[in-house]
Design brief:
Layout (H helix, E strand, L loop, with lengths): L1 E3 L3 H12 L5 E5 L15 H17 L7 E4 L2 E5 L5 H6 L7 E4 L4 H14 L4 E5 L3 H19 L11 E4 L1 H15 L4 E4 L2 E8 L12 E5 L18 E2 L3 H6 L5 E6 L16 H4 L2 H25 L3 H12 L11 H33 L15 E4 L3 H12 L4 E5 L7 H7 L3 E3 L7 H4 L7 E4 L4 H14 L4 E5 L3 H14 L5 E4 L1 H14 L3 E7 L2 E9 L11 H4 L5 E7 L10 H8 L6 E3 L12 E6 L1 H7 L11
Parallel strand pairs: 1-2, 1-5, 2-4, 5-6, 6-7, 13-14, 13-16, 14-15, 16-17, 17-18
Antiparallel strand pairs: 3-4, 8-9, 9-12, 10-11, 10-12, 19-20, 20-23, 21-22, 21-23
Helix pairs in contact: 1-17, 4-5, 6-12, 6-17, 9-10, 9-11, 10-11, 12-13
Length: 627
């Protein structure tokens, strides 16, 4: 594996490939990065930190500007100002399985991807691009180039693929899940957000299974995992008998992240009648209508004419277009005067109604203010690259949001207007800004601005207002994030506090793409890891022609869901009819019956261990040493 980048994501990705997947990695970084402290991942923290510290020391000792590779264990580090053809060749792109280009500049990644595809048509490419539309075109272009160069026609015989990801897109689901559910162990698939939840049942009780039981934890597991050998580790993907025998032990189950709170305001273009006019104006209109009706009834009773004629004459009097009631009875004259008076009162009311309606339609594309009585919402600080993606995810989950942004020209302001999300313009560090966002009644606070001190100051102030508020803050520096997390947890032990790094959250998705398109995500379980993959059943003897129960191999893999879009022709089968009946809108069917027979045309989502997935896909897993 070759990783090229110029920020923390490259180091995170290299550590993820080494620590989780046990792959050989060549890391290409600019010379200016040699003094940066490189981050680590999960349980491999101590081992990987020592490895990368040695890499840094070796890089410092080399002459500046040279492009050489120095092996350290199973990893290599290179220094190069740009990913030129010479740099990629020296990194071994011609022999590599996958290449990740995670520079912060889109143009640099595209230029290097075109060069790498020419050097190795069968190379699996992973690009970091923020522009989604451009990314789709680049994927198609590079895949087509790989197919033509490899002579596969449609590319079916080649393992080459191009995946374009955005760190903002990949980190947003974890940030949202942390704010809503309190955990970042999430997997995003087909519009659904799933989380792995650890449950510790009471002695003599079994934990609720959720969508599926992923693991049975070690008997003496703690919050940070057991400090013991692999022989005493958790039981991954246990069968029903193992779950029943694990009474009193914690389990890890899969659940869907959901939210129960106030309803969202209507989408743009669907303006509710109540929002057209203010409450005072609605009462005024109702009062005038009641008076007109009362005058019409009185005229009917006084003159004895037909009720419709009485109502018609009343309207004529109201608009002052009838002849005077000369020679009529006194009652008729009084009613005519009252009707004219009501007409004078009706004119300003109608004018106010027209002006309010026009103002409402004019401001549907403008920024909205937080409505009165709003509660249970998420306060989002910052509408930059990350904040925009987080806002989109929150609205996809039907979660009410109030945004706070100091720059009226920020990247996400157009998105907030389009989604009709309330926005408070102002510096979050100034007094009264968070109060305007209804922080005292909020469900959670997401601080994702680009300034660590701003995020920290906002969280500290919010905690002074609401000590039990759930807070999630984005911090770039790992040591600073750890210190902040521990201090906030100690000061507010009853509240939920999470500090997250975007590169740390995005690295698993990039690593999964480098391992193959079928990898949806990875969830750590103590010292081990579970992978989630989308697999075509055809060509896999362990799945094709077998029922869901027969295809389940405890400790190796387990079928979790069926993609209905890929298996729509089987809707009428008795074994699948019940599952299809309750299929969610996402197109995935969960809780498949054990009697459902998997066919070659099916596409399934499964959970697997590294060894199990390698065996299922016909790949030999790499041997790894140490923890």
């Amino acid at each position: 594996m070759v990783v090229c980048g110029d920020d923390g994501l490259a180091h995170r990705l290299a550590a993820e490939l080494r620590g989780v997947y046990g792959q050989q990695v060549t890391l290409v970084v600019p010379p200016s990065e040699r003094g940066v402290r490189m981050p680590v991942v999960g349980r491999a923290r101590a081992t990987t930190a020592a490895l990368l510290d040695r890499v840094v020391n070796a890089a410092v000792s080399r002459a500046s500007g040279t492009t050489t590779a120095e092996p350290v264990g199973a990893a290599q580090v290179m220094e190069a100002a740009e990913p030129t053809e010479e740099t990629l060749g020296a990194a071994g792109v011609e022999r590599a399985v996958a290449l990740a280009l995670v520079y912060d500049d889109d143009e640099t990644n595209i230029r290097a991807a075109l060069t790498a595809r020419r050097l190795n048509p069968r190379l699996r490419l992973v690009l970091r691009l923020y522009n989604r539309r451009l990314g789709q075109h680049i994927e198609e272009l590079l895949d087509q180039a790989a197919s033509l160069a490899a002579g596969d026609g449609d590319g079916s015989g080649s393992d080459a693929s191009t995946t374009v990801l955005s760190d903002a897109d990949t980190a947003a689901p974890a940030l949202v899940a942390t704010a809503v559910a309190g955990t970042s162990k999430v997997v995003q698939t087909d519009g659904l957000m799933l989380r792995a939840v650890e449950r510790t049942p009471m002695v003599g009780q079994l934990a609720r299974p959720g969508l599926a039981t992923l693991a049975v934890l070690s008997a003496d597991s703690t919050e940070n995992g057991p400090e013991q050998g692999p022989e005493q580790g958790p039981d991954l993907l246990p069968d029903a008998a193992a779950v029943r025998a694990a009474t009193g032990r914690g389990t890890v189950v899969l659940e869907q992240v959901s939210y129960a709170g106030p309803e969202l305001p209507p989408a743009r273009g669907a303006v509710a009648f109540a929002s057209l006019f203010s409450r005072r104006l609605r009462w005024s209109l109702a009062g005038v209508a009641g008076c007109v009706l009362a005058l019409a009834v009185s005229l009917w009773l006084v003159t004895g004419m037909h009720p419709l004629s009485a109502f018609y004459l009343t309207l004529l009097d109201l608009f002052a277009i009838d002849d005077p009631a000369i020679g009529a009875s006194v009652g008729r004259k009084v009613l005519q005067l009252l009707s004219g008076l009501m007409g004078l009162l009706l004119l300003p009311v109608l004018l106010a109604a027209v002006l309010e309606a026009l103002g409402t339609f004019r401001t549907t594309s403008a920024l909205r203010k937080p409505p009165r009585g709003l509660g249970g919402h998420v306060v989002l600080l910052g509408l930059g690259k990350i904040g925009t993606r987080v806002l989109t995810r929150l609205r996809e989950l039907q979660i009410p949001v109030v945004c706070v942004e100091s720059d009226p020209e920020a990247r996400g302001m157009a998105t907030a207007r389009r989604l009709r999300v309330p926005v408070v313009l102002g510096d979050v560090t100034q007094e009264g800004v968070l109060e305007a966002a209804k922080i005292n009644r909020a469900h959670a606070l997401l601080a994702v601005t680009s300034a660590d001190t701003t995020n920290l100051e906002a969280v500290l102030y919010a905690r002074s207002v609401r000590p039990d508020l759930r807070v999630v803050l984005r911090l770039y520096d790992d040591d600073f994030a750890t210190a902040v997390y521990r201090t906030l947890r100690a000061a507010h032990p009853q509240a939920s506090t999470r500090s997250r790094s975007v590169s740390h959250l995005a690295a698993p998705a990039f690593a999964g793409a480098m391992m193959g398109r079928q990898i949806l995500g990875a969830i750590p379980v103590e010292r081990r890891v579970l992978l989630f993959a989308a697999v075509e059943v055809g060509g896999h003897a362990q799945l094709e022609g077998k029922t869901v129960a027969e295809a389940f191999r405890p400790g190796a893999w387990r079928v979790l869901a069926l993609d209905t879009a890929a298996s729509d022709d089987r809707r009428e089968e008795p074994a699948a009819e019940e599952a299809y009946e309750d299929a969610p809108g996402s197109g995935l069917v969960w809780d498949l019956p054990d009697s459902y027979v998997l066919r070659g045309s099916d596409r399934v989502v499964l959970a697997a261990t590294r060894t199990g997935l390698a065996e299922l896909l016909g790949r030999r897993p790499r041997q790894r040493t140490g923890a």
